[in-house]
Amino acid sequence: MVEATILTRDGSPTRYHPRYQQHYHSLSGAHLEARMRYVVASRVVERARDQGKVRILDVGFGLGTNLAWAIHEIQQEVPGASIEIVSLERELLPVDVLLPHFRALPETRLARMLRDLVQTGEWIERNLRLQLICAEAQIEIDSIEGPFDTVFLDPFSPRCNPELWASPFLAAIRSRMAQGGILTTYSCARSVRLSLLRAGWEIGVGPRVGSKSSGTLASCGSVLPPLVAIDPKQSRWLVRQLRGPGDGET
Ligand SMILES: C[S@@+](CC[C@H](N)C(=O)[O-])C[C@H]1O[C@@H](n2cnc3c(N)ncnc32)[C@H](O)[C@@H]1O
């Protein structure tokens, strides 16, 4: 393990980012969060099963954990499905820092794949195409072509990474979504939910993961089964903000 690597409660590693003063994952479990918050909550396996193919937008590649778990779960559950993932990252860590995290993944071939992806920006094999774009996501999004079925929205917190939680970026993502596509994120902040609504998403509650809050799911149009409704009090507040002039966000 390299310095600054921390074991989370499910035994999987994460890191602490000194400038953001945040961890890359929930301390309840980095792998648990990747699997439950991102892969399961986004219904990406079901989508792959229904369509035979799936396209994912991965905002904040970080240590590659969400991306790796998506590949692992989809390929296990729907062998032969075609997977395409576009990852965005503005501050790619050196490969020797990332390797211990890749080696902790559930399959060794994932570690090799991610290492090559980080070194070349691309990984292509039968039924799997990965692209890692090192850029400011809020700028690069304009040159990315949809449609996507799934978005993993995993920046640092809205307080220190506001550009990726703002309505213009969320609207730019939404305009690249397939009908019924789902965005999943760990934040359940009212301001984030309001930004999603302003960007045209329908919103609902995500799953609780470990000791973390439920997070938020958002869909492009309605989905079946429907998203779990957010609590009525917050819903009323959001409606007031959407209707009212000069809506203050908290
Ligand atoms: C919470 S970590 C992501 C963890 C990652 N999803 C994983 O599974 O390991 C947030 C990541 O977003 C990246 N990031 C923050 N702001 C960004 C921006 N404007 N554009 C692109 N990437 C950004 C950070 O550098 C960091 O790697």
Shape: globular
Q: How many separate structural domains?
A: 1
Report the average pLDDT across residues: 94
Q: In CATH, what is the class?
A: Alpha Beta
Please state roughly what percent of the residues sit in beta strands, choosing from under 5%, 5-15%, 15-25%, 25-35%, 35-45% or over 45%: 15-25%
CATH fold name, please? Rossmann fold
In total, how many beta strands? 11
* Annotated CATH homologous superfamily: Vaccinia Virus protein VP39
Element order: H for helix, E for strand: EEEHHEHEHHEEHEHEHEEH
- Helix run count: 9
List keywords for this structure.
Rossmann fold; alpha/beta; 35% helix; binds S-adenosylmethionine; 250 residues; 8-stranded mixed beta sheet; 11 strands
Short account of what is shown:
Helices cover 35% and strands 24% of the residues. With 250 residues, the chain is α/β, with parallel strands linked by helices. The chain has one domain: Rossmann fold (3-Layer(aba) Sandwich), CATH 3.40.50.150.
Note down, in words, how this protein is organized.
With 250 residues, this protein is α/β, with parallel strands linked by helices. It has a single domain (5-243), classed as Vaccinia Virus protein VP39 (Rossmann fold), CATH 3.40.50.150. The protein has nine helices and eleven strands. It has helices at 30-40, 44-51, 65-77, 95-103, 108-120, 137-140, 167-174, 190-198, 232-243, and strands at 5-7, 13-17, 22-23, 53-59, 82-89, 122-125, 128-134, 148-153, 177-185, 202-205, 216-219. The chain has an eight-stranded mixed beta sheet with strand order 6-7-5-4-8-9-11-10, sandwiched between helices. Helix 3 links the parallel strand 4 (53-59) and strand 5 (82-89). The mean pLDDT is 94. The structure holds S-adenosylmethionine. Residues 24, 34, 60, 62-66, 88-91, 136-138, 154-156, 161, 163-164 line the site of S-adenosylmethionine.
